[in-house]
Design a protein that fits this description.
Helix content is 14%, strand content 32%. It is α+β, with helices and mostly antiparallel strands. The N and C termini lie far apart (53 Å). The longest helix is centred in the last third of the chain and has 19 residues. The protein is globular and about 65 Å long. Strands 31-32-34-33-35-36-37-38 form an 8-stranded mixed β-sheet, sandwiched between helices.
Length: 678
Amino acid sequence: MKPILCPALLLVALYCSPNAAHADDTRFNPADINRVADIGEPVLSPDGSSVVYTVSTANLERDEPQSDLWRVRYDGSGRVQLTHTPDSSESHPQWSGDGKFIAFLADRKLDGEASDDDTKTQVWVMPADGGEARRVTNLPSGVEDFVLSPDGKQLAAIAFDPEYPVGTKKPKHPLPIVTDRFQFKDDDTGWLGNRHKHLYLVDIGSGAATQITSGKHDEQLPAWSPDGKLIAYVTKRGADPDRHLNYDIYVIAPRAGAKERQLTTFPGSDLDPYWGTRPAWSPDSTRIAYLQSGEDKWIYYAPWQLAIIDVATGKATLPAPIDRCFTKPRWAPDGRSIYVLIEQAEVTHLSRVELPSGKITELTHGDRFDSDLDVSPNGHLIVLGGDNTHPPRLSAVEPNQLRLLDDQNAWLAGKKLATTETLHLQSADGTPLDALLTKPVGYVPGRRYPTIVRVHGGPVYQFSHEFMPDWQVYAARGYVVLAVNPRGSSGRGFDFSKAIYADWGNKDSQDVLAGVDRIVALGVADPARLGIGGWSYGAILTDEIIARDTRFKAAIAGAGSGNMYGMYGDDEYAREYELELGTPWANRDAYDRASYPFLHADRIKTPTMFQCGERDFNVPCIGAEQMYQALRSLGVPTELVMYPGQHHGLTVPSYLRDRMERNLAWYDRYLKTGGATP
């Protein structure tokens, strides 16, 4: 179905015209955003000889994102694209235990199957060397996640309950959405009724499926033990699972009628929601490595700790409690150590944690951001990571070096890219802070430049030394880009993150402004030409800052809000609001503080563009609409851009380019009053 364009999008054709690109083709321009390929989900074959992974690109002809499977040998040879289906995407590849076939998720149709705009994602299998793929599952609601059994004869799938009774014809119009749940919407899934996600066993040969969990709760992130005897998964239970974040790991035998057993009992989350880290079984099937957060009240502020639990006794330990976030644990083949990603200030590195001592050894170093890894039974280790001038690249980890296996963005070598440096500074109250500073291409020391301050989302996230396409576009256009990691950011420990707990926009605003003061004092930023902007919490904090400080001449707030009274019950976070702020009727002071930009909109003087995705249930458009309406009422220059059919993160290639072009045009209008000033 073609989206209906709102009036604000009628300039798409103009912005996407070939002439809109920067005249100097060696500089990174808005069109290049859709040229960047994204490598993901690398998995080593059982014998360690090959890696299969996904490569996500923009299909400009269909104006859709597309993901395909690729394979490369561990020695770096034989790189090949395994799937070439322009009307579907493939993801989540897995090797069979004998290495003979690869299973994956795909939203493709069978040959001759009737066209359906709502094609379901199912599990497919194909020979390891490529070739004709075969669909394995036919679950009515599709498959969200799966894991192969060690012998390759079965798979465990996560799927929603059927939307319609099996065997009945799909009605012409959707059924009414009826719910009595506390959480009734989700940005990824949509409206949540009384259907839930459960665990199914599927026979690879016949496709026969057997449901082995049920109830008013959801299961996710299955992991099959190497000995084939148990499946671990993550779930929330209790009288009302929607009201808490106490995820636990359960195990169940892979057979119909088996009784599940709760494994973890920590009164908080045993799940990483950002990275979707599944439980990791030890090679001997006796232990599971996983990630443990804090108690419910701290929601996402507490760092994710590496935890290990003994499957027989349920005894859990934290081998290396260092007050930093861990992700993606993988066991070494001998079971004596765990490979894991550890986040520090501005970087995330692959590290090894020795057991039981907890000694940590960094295996990658410097200004880089590692995002994934895998290890094979013979000890081959791979890492996916990038830096300021390289999107994620796939590398083999060898003693004292990384050996490149695939770089899907070698074309960037022909571009003049801006460099990024780390600034160390202090906030007004003396709190040590870090910021990333990207200077424009062709920067001349001693000159002041128009500056764009970028504000990150989360709020518990951070700007890292990773490739940021929008920063490169701004730098190519002559802008300085400043990205402060204020209090509330990750990478610096629990106390730093929770400093803004139930107090959004106070200390973190001070920290961002301290970064602005610093680069003005350094003679880099022109204080008369300052812009600011961000997405998600970055937009929420942008609204806060422009309501507290009038120095900015232009702002862009994407997928944000200035009125938390209006967000309660409209976005997917009612649970988190109540855990952190309480309810609006019982905690007016907290909601007044969180709604400062809307309640004090009359203090905003900055021309501001507001953007949102039409179907965003994470930070719905009402947040942008209310702030837009307030500024329109007050006569402050403003504009509202709504992207049809989009959720919290934009995915349509033409929309991604459109947003970049609009941002440039908005900042140019208010910040480009001439060249760089002495």
